[in-house]
User: Fold Retrotransposon protein, putative, Ty1-copia subclass from Paspalum notatum var. saurae.
Amino acid sequence: MLKTAEQNIKKETSDVLLVQKGKRFKKKGKVKGNNHAIAKSSGTDHNKKTPKPKPTSDATCFHCHDVGHWKRNCPKYLEEKKKGSLTSDSDTKKTKLNDLKPSFLWHCRLGHINEKRIMKLHKDGLLDSFDFESYDTCESCLLGKMTKAPFTGVSERAENLLELIHTDVCGPMSTVARNDFQYFITFTDDFSRYGYVYLMRHKSESFEKFKEFQNEVQNHIGKTIKFLRSDRGSEYLSQEFGDHLRRCGIVPQLTPPGTPQWNGVSERRNRTLLDMVRSMMSQTDLPLYFWGYALETIAFILNRAPSKATEKTPYEIWTGKRPSLSFLKIWGCEAYVKRLTSDKLTPKSEKCIFVGYPRETKGYYFYNRNENKVFVARNGVFLEKEFLSKGVSGSSVHLEEIQDVPQFSSNPEDSQENLQAVVEPVNETPALRRSERVRHKPERLMFIVNKQDDILSFDDNEPATFQEAIESPDFEKWLEAMRFEMNSMKDNQVWNLVDLPYGVKAIKNKWVFKKKFDMDGRVHIHKARLVAKGFKQIHGIDYDETFSPVVMFKSIRIILAIAAYFDYEIWQMDVKTVFLNGNLSEDMYMTQPEGFVDPKNAGKVCKLQKSIYGLKQASRSWNLHFDEVIKEFGFIKNEEEPCLYKKANGSALVFLVLYVDDILLIGNDIPMLESGKASLKIRFSMKDLGEAAYILDIKIYRDRSRKLIGLSQSTYIDKVLKRFNMHESKKGFLPLSADISYALSVTSRYQADLGESHWTAVKNILKYLRRTKDMFLMYGGEEELNVTGYTDASFQTDKDDSRSQSEYIFRLNGETVCWKNSKQSTVADSITEAKYIAASEAAKEAVWIRKLIIELGVIPNAESPVDLYCDNNGAIA
Assistant:
């Protein structure tokens, strides 16, 4: 018997006594009884039989835990072993002991409801007849239901159906479910505790989901909703929601600020739902984005399970019928489902996974791993006991939601059937098999820098309104950002409070919130901007001209390539509240900002003295003002690039590059650079960012010992991949040029009439970007600063209009500074003509580059002709 037990005991089990080859392994902790130790063999003859020791009066049985006998003498154990219901292992895991108990089987079938509910179902005769036996602690429940002490509170109960409905929105969840669902909204009837759950993509869908719920329940019950209890979330406080409630005669009951306990029914429902979802998810190996199916399954089960608040089940009170539970199965278990069509040689069924109960059809949801889809079928053969024998999956389940936060005054002074139907494809990304070989990127695309791997934690949950900001978890940071913005308005004397002149309309404004990321993609600034609704401005009255230049990216690359060659200093500055520096020539009136209305002058409006974000002329006003100021400091504007300035004093020189509020100072004389920074700080509120490292979503790497500068857009690419849910996709092998300009040029032609093939092509581009995101442009290593151009053309690449494709690139200091890949504007009759057109376009670009670098005045041979290479003799001739 000892040998049999040894073969069945798992080596990693920590709380059993193992006997192996004469060695003794003691159970950890205290051992009850004095005769549990097995004497170590003192002889060398292991085949010699020794008499079995007899239990003492205080010996404890490991099977039934009674005193006076051991397990091998236990009547219960011998009887169960005779029936074949237990293995000879005396101390298997609790879950395996539980697996044999019908009560635990129903505990899992019913979505891990508690034991009292199962006892009541058993007592009421709703479950199959069996001897109810308590089960040990469910490990899945421990993983999913650990809670704090409950809040004690008493409230009046409704006396009829639909008299009071509790509702709440939960989300956004940390993992996006199918169809991009991130939120869910619950509606619970107070009298019956019958609940509905709807999945949503955005909180703004709450109103439509309520109308859907209202129409369904009022038509089903034949009564109308009288009260709707919710928190003060912005989704319930919208104008259209309030107007609808008034039209329907529904009285809203809003919880006091900071007391979500008063909406305890909904809060408890949300917690119960998520607890049970986590429990069920932890018992399977399904991807976490199946939480939507688990949630709908739990809502279905809870309506058929007993509640402390009611004597009958919610389903019985709601429908007047006793619920049937015989069809319930363990969520996540495998099942064999009959195929719709099969030939004589293929199997008639397929192994799938049960993932829910459809509302519209009497049947089950099944997930087919091979076809990667979810479908509906009337029945199947469920492998529940095999599923339970596997135990808990052990996978960690992190379903997080943003909790409601206390609100505060907006005043700045107060700081506070065998018929199967395909439902949908499921985007499951299989695990990638990776080679252990160390991969190296080509040196022509990068140079080695010492840096940590980027750890991205992008958070796109930015408030859309002032109300959302004060209700968000980061409300203190948003409040601080708004106060900083208001102080900037005051410091720049942007407006005066006046009475609105007769016949004049004041434009409105809104708060815009933005999280700014550092070069590694981490949130480091919460920014709030007060923006005027400039779309209501009238041309000729409120504004005239609006054009304002910004520096071109190719100009930045050219100046950085030169800086790498001469080892110039590259410093960066940022203009705070940049548009507030522009002067207005028109009389403009604006309402006071939301949340910051002056209580003593509530009826007055803001007469704008300076430009403000959102005004059509704001950017132009700022640029004109900056141009005027910077020329006072001795800077001269470049005629070819209006946002590039130069200041020279003998051999010392400084270049200034302006992109709205981002400034680069590049030069060879540190005192002159310091003087330029000081001058800017006198006239504008500036932020000194030191040596340039990240500008316009471009990360700058520098190796000054080798005179190298690298430009990377890995962080920006990660943002794009995250936005389109491609950040965990396979890395593409599609051979593209590093700048993907040709691929974008071709795919962009089909934006007006997209198809699946076009979407697949775009996804391939994103996959390619994911593979090559860590490659970057590298400037440096050239002996001379020469501009070289290369041009080419593809003949009649567009079969619809027979137009050709032009391509050209220009290189400076070892790397590309300018490139273009676009369809030609006319039809070429031959490849020679197509390449001649491409060379003509490249020549125009070469002329512009030559003029630009001549004005820079730092390249000795700048006035020399630019070499332009073409591979067609006819075009060259």
Observations:
- The longest helix spans residues 831-856.
- The CA atoms of residues 373 and 425 lie 4 Å apart.
- The two ends are 98 Å apart (CA to CA).
